[in-house]
Write a structure and sequence with these properties.
Immunoglobulin-like, Neuraminidase, single chain, 0% helix
Length: 352
């Protein structure tokens, strides 16, 4: 979007692999980086020195990457405390940076629809134009398979999809709104956020969309689907909200104006002060599901295998857990109620 240069860039909800704490980083139009571990208390971490932030990515190894609208990428290897220039793609309207760890690609998207691709963040080259203008976001559908598509959405709600790693694109639908600000992906569902706080979702790769919820907040800026089953949004003042089971809960605010975007890595859960949510719990979600279920488990306790029984007590399938984040694929089973055993835990799930 053309007004991105005037906004604050909000960074990452990142859990550093290896048991380190999860936290949320935001950075402002003055180039300052702030951090919270619980959504309420914030601390200043660093200053970038750049006021035109476009995207912030944390790779699986914990390295941070900050993209400016002019195409400059900075890197941090000490959890965001110090940043150094890495590469400059010399564009004027960069809007998003994506790490596709499943297929081994990096992507850079511009507002005019130009897509850069490479196997290394320092060696991306132009590969295609998605076909839309005023693009605002790029995601990879999180089904876990290498064939999962890339999706781009524009400010006016046009949705484009690629199934060949960005080489060619097809317009597949339109959200029906003209104030789209961000796009997120969670398993087999796409979500779009509007500036007026409407949350739309699609379960058919962006072809059709339904209004899912509204936060009744003007000036929402960014949407994030994290790996612990939550959606997060932030507004232009830095107010942070979490969505689960059909409702939003406001966690707190960074008290910083003009927040713009979010990006995620790891499997974080912001813990409420009352301890109502804990990252040490076992969960299998979303439930019900069309067949893809995320597994959240205490650190170092993710099992290697799972087994599934039907309502009559018959074992219907078993498999190995090989993806990161852990995903159980039950799409081959008929709709119904099943029991899933993962390590010491048993889950009742509904597949529709």
């Amino acid at each position: 979007m053309r007004f991105r240069a005037l906004l604050v860039m909000l960074g990452v909800l990142a859990a550093w692999i290896g048991g380190l704490e999860a936290y949320l980083d935001v950075f402002t139009s003055t180039g300052d980086l702030f951090r919270t571990t619980n959504g309420t208390a914030w601390q200043h971490v660093a200053s970038f020195g750049y006021s035109d932030g476009a995207a912030y990515v944390i790779a699986d190894n914990g390295t941070g990457y900050f993209l400016t609208q002019s195409g400059l990428i900075l890197r941090s290897q000490d959890q965001g405390h110090t940043w150094t220039p890495l590469v400059n793609y010399s564009v004027s309207d960069a809007v998003d940076l994506l790490r596709d760890s499943v297929n081994g690609y990096w992507f850079l998207l511009t507002a005019s629809g130009d897509l850069y691709r490479g196997t290394d963040v320092q060696s991306m080259t132009p590969v295609a134009n998605v076909g839309g203008t005023d693009c605002v976001g790029l995601v990879r559908e999180r089904g876990g398979a290498a064939s999962t598509g890339l999706v781009v959405v524009t400010r006016t709600g046009d949705v484009f999809r690629s199934t060949n790693h960005g080489t060619s694109w097809q317009r597949v639908g339109n959200v029906g709104m003209s104030d789209v600000v961000d796009l997120a992906a969670d398993l087999d569902t796409l979500q779009v956020l509007t500036e007026t706080g409407d949350l739309w979702r699609s379960t058919d790769h962006g072809t059709s969309w339904t209004l899912w919820a509204t936060v009744s907040q003007v000036g929402t800026r960014a949407l994030l689907a994290d790996r612990s089953g939550y959606l997060f949004l932030v507004d232009q003042t830095g107010a942070l909200a979490r969505f689960l089971s059909g409702s939003w809960t406001w966690l707190g605010t960074a008290n910083q104006v003009f927040v713009q975007g979010m990006a995620a890595a790891g499997s974080p859960t912001l813990v409420q002060e009352d301890g109502s949510e804990t990252p040490t719990q076992w969960r299998l979600f979303p439930n019900p599901s069309r067949g893809l279920f995320y597994l959240m488990a205490p650190a170092n306790q993710i099992p290697e295998t799972f087994e599934v029984w039907d309502a009559l007590g018959r074992r219907v399938t078993r498999g190995r857990i090989t993806t990161q984040p852990p995903v159980l694929d039950l799409r081959s089973l008929a709709p119904g109620v099943y029991w899933v055993r993962c390590g010491p835990q048993r889950f009742r799930v509904v597949k529709y």
